[in-house]
Write a structure and sequence with these properties.
With about 40 residues, the chain is α+β, with helices and mostly antiparallel strands. It contains one helix and two strands; from the N terminus they run E-E-H.
Amino acid sequence: MCPLYDKDGNKIKSSDPRDTPNFGGPFLALLLVPALLL
């Protein structure tokens, strides 16, 4: 996977979103909210 960054611009090494609360930022939130509602 490509390097991912949190909202503070810090590189996130883990590919598991559960390990990093800021993982993916707002974009991931847009994906997670509908998934949680289903």
